[in-house]
Amino acid sequence: MIPVLAVSRTAFREAISLLQVPSNVQSGGDATFGFMGGRLTIRLGNASTEVAAEGQWPGRARVPGRFIQALRKALPEADPLRFRVQNGRLYAEGYSMPCAWEELPTPEVDIPIPSSLRDLLALRRQYSGEALAAAGAAAAVARAEDQRDEIIRQACDVLKRFGVKQETLIGRVDERARQPRHSLTEKDRRVIAAIARAWTILAPLGFESDDIRQLIEQGVENAWNP
């Protein structure tokens, strides 16, 4: 398998611009490219930076530090940027430099039990395809991704009349997925349903969903403090 990662060009440019380059970078300092939990981590000397990425990268690539300097000066135009290790070289699109590749052991997959939809989707960002397959989780993750795509499709059907584009919704879903996970309880679902019904009734009077949520919270607080 050829290690390949896709990274947002804008996010990568910002990440390496924040990386403090040691003064000895031209005289032998090395940079490493590692991947874990859906994040590409770049280390150079004692400094490091990271950026969201997608792909398969079951190891660590070590290149001369001037590779980072070169990308800072002339970053390829492709978006997303694709990095790969092939024939002893690390490629950033068409630009490459010799590298040393260190294969890392396949991590043990930690599967929450029971697993929510968000739990299963998070596994794709945290582990390689090989690790998921070895743990017997690949099919469950694939089903979760199909379910996510169907949810997005249904939401787009509802929101498109308001000018919400599918790519905007997908971006928001991805952003939410990277935040700490919170599995909805049955009580959470009942509260959300109540807010939605009340908002439908009260919206003509200028109510927002947050107004209704605050009313519910105040009611619960008053119930505990008569």
* Helical proportion, percent range: 40-55%
Mean pLDDT over the full residue set? 82
The string of secondary-structure elements, in order, is: EHEEEEHEEEEHHHHHH
Report strand order across the widest sheet. 8-7-6-1-4-3-2-5-9
Shape: elongated
Count of domains: 3
Which class do the helix and strand fractions yield? alpha+beta
Number of helices: 8
Total E-strand runs: 9
Gap from first CA to last CA = 65 Å
Please tell me how large the radius of gyration is: 23 Å
Architecture per CATH nomenclature, i.e. the level-2 architecture of the largest domain:
Roll
CATH class of the largest domain: Alpha Beta
CATH superfamily of the largest domain: DNA Polymerase III, subunit A, domain 2
Low-confidence segments, given as residue ranges, are none
The share of residues in extended strands comes to 15-25%
Largest beta sheet, briefly?
Answer: 9 strands, antiparallel
Please name the CATH topology of the largest domain: DNA Polymerase III, Chain A, domain 2
Key features of this structure:
226 residues; alpha+beta; DNA Polymerase III, Chain A, domain 2; nine-stranded antiparallel β-sheet; 8 helices; 23% strand; elongated
Description:
This protein has 226 residues and is an alpha+beta fold. The protein folds into three domains: 4-103, DNA Polymerase III, Chain A, domain 2, CATH 3.10.150; 107-183, no CATH class; 185-226, no CATH class. The protein has helices at residues 9-17, 66-73, 117-126, 129-134, 138-159, 166-177, 186-202, 209-224; strands spanning 4-7, 30-36, 39-44, 47-56, 59-64, 81-86, 89-92, 95-98, 100-103. The protein has a nine-stranded antiparallel beta sheet. α3 packs across α5 (138-159) and α5 (138-159) crosses α6 (166-177). The mean pLDDT is 82.
